[in-house]
Design goal:
Elements (H helix, E strand, L loop, with lengths): L1 E5 L4 H13 L4 E6 L18 E4 L5 H11 L3 E4 L6 H6 L2 H21 L3 E5 L26 H20 L3 E6 L1 E3 L8 H10 L4 E4 L5 E6 H14 L4 E5 L4 E3 H11 L4 H4 E4 L14 H5 L8 H14 L1 H4 L6 H4 L9
Parallel strand pairs: 1-2, 1-4, 2-3, 4-5, 5-6, 6-10, 7-9, 8-12
Antiparallel strand pairs: 9-11
Helix pairs in contact: 1-7, 2-4, 4-5, 6-8, 6-11
The structure holds nicotinamide-adenine-dinucleotide (NAD).
Length: 335
């Protein structure tokens, strides 16, 4: 079986590539990635000799088509996206290009080359803010995005549904909650908190920190995705959630405690991110019906993640040179 992983040099894509290499003998993997600031060959350490890597842009239709025709994948899994909400507030154009036009380019290639299956990584953020509603979004919940990032992801999902219906492109859309774990860029909340503490800086909380998120250890996500590819249904959407809800404040304070520091001294509140959603919450009964459940609890997942960043300074050190990464209020630091 040939599996093509687009965006496989980013956080989740590289974890999934490593998961496939370690758990399946009978597949050939090609990772196709533009290597933006978020994608790095270093993320594929230990597996580069077992895969084929091609540097390319998902929105470069001609080159993408050449690679797909040459590799002949049975399935394409697409992680490629601009993913950081702070950046989407400052510079939304690249989000539209990759997350909408890139998906469109890929769909055009898939229908022309007749790729058997397209698995698209979307996000829980497409459902928008569920604050004040005592509800959990199932896969039929209306899309109601709040940020340029989530609007671009929702647009990608809609294009895929249209290509399924109009051209018969076989797809599965996967909507994960917040993932965390090794190889996550230090601009994101959990690694950013760890790295700030390691720099002797206070951890920051946006606004009151009462934003509720569901936290999934990335290895559990990889198992879920493999199962959806193996046993999921075509033209279906799958939410992937952990049912481990915690506020941003709780997460930050717990990391500070686990790192032996005092949350009353080593945490500061900064202004809220514009338009920030207060609560994401999904139901995942469809995925549970396939036999999946998360195995790594939040406490264990946080401890494992802190350990990984402590042991892998070589990996994150070059990334924090950009002032933006550790700025107190990143959305104010760029035009
Ligand atoms: N991390 C999370 O908590 C989370 C939660 C829900 C959904 N998601 C979704 O999962 C996917 C992966 O997220 P992540 O956190 O691993 O992202 P990431 O930012 O770590 O990695 C994105 C990868 O895509 C690549 N890329 C970007 N633009 C590209 C382009 N035009 N062509 C080819 N490659 C390109 C980057 O080089 C990078 O390797 C995204 O689609 C994201 O929307 C992430």
């Amino acid at each position: 079986m040939n599996v093509m992983i687009i965006g496989g040099a980013g956080f989740m894509g590289s974890n999934f590539t490593r998961f496939l290499v370690n758990n399946y003998n009978d597949i050939k993997i090609l990772v196709y990635d533009k290597l933006t600031y978020a994608g790095r060959i270093e993320n594929l350490k230990g597996v580069m000799d077992k895969i084929t890597f091609v540097r390319g842009d998902v929105a470069n239709e001609e080159f993408l088509e050449y690679i797909v025709r040459t590799f002949q994948p049975s399935v394409i899994v697409n992680f490629a996206a601009e993913t950081h909400v702070d950046r989407s507030i400052n510079e939304p154009a690249s989000f539209m290009r990759t997350n909408i036009y890139g998906v469109f380019s890929l769909l055009e290639v898939i229908r022309r080359v007749e790729v058997p299956l397209y698995v698209h990584i979307s996000t829980d953020e497409v459902y928008g803010d569920l604050a004040g509603i005592d509800a959990y979004a199932d896969e039929c919940w209306p899309l109601n995005p709040s940020s340029p990032y989530s609007a671009s992801k929702a647009s990608g999902d809609l294009l895929i549904k249209a290509y399924g219906r109009t051209y018969g492109v076989r797809y599965r859309i996967v909507r994960p909650c917040n993932n965390y774990g090794p190889y996550q860029h230090p601009e994101k909340l959990i690694p950013r908190t760890i790295v700030r503490i390691l720099h002797g800086m206070p951890a920051t909380i946006y606004g009151d920190g009462m934003q509720v998120r569901d936290w999934l250890y990335v290895e559990d996500f990889c198992r879920a995705l493999a199962l959806i590819i193996e046993k999921g249904g075509d033209y279906e959407v799958y939410n992937v959630c952990a049912n481990q809800f915690a506020t941003v404040k709780r997460i930050v304070e717990r990391i500070v405690e686990l790192m032996g520091r005092d949350p009353s001294k080593d945490v500061i509140h900064v202004s809220s991110r514009p338009g920030e959603d207060r609560r994401y919450a999904m139901k995942c009964e469809k995925l549970r019906g396939l036999g999946w459940r998360p195995l790594v609890g939040l406490e264990e997942g946080l401890a494992r993640t802190i350990r990984w960043y402590l042991d892998n300074e070589w990996w994150w050190k070059p990334l924090v040179d950009e002032t933006y990464v550790l700025a107190d209020e990143p959305w104010g630091t760029r035009k």
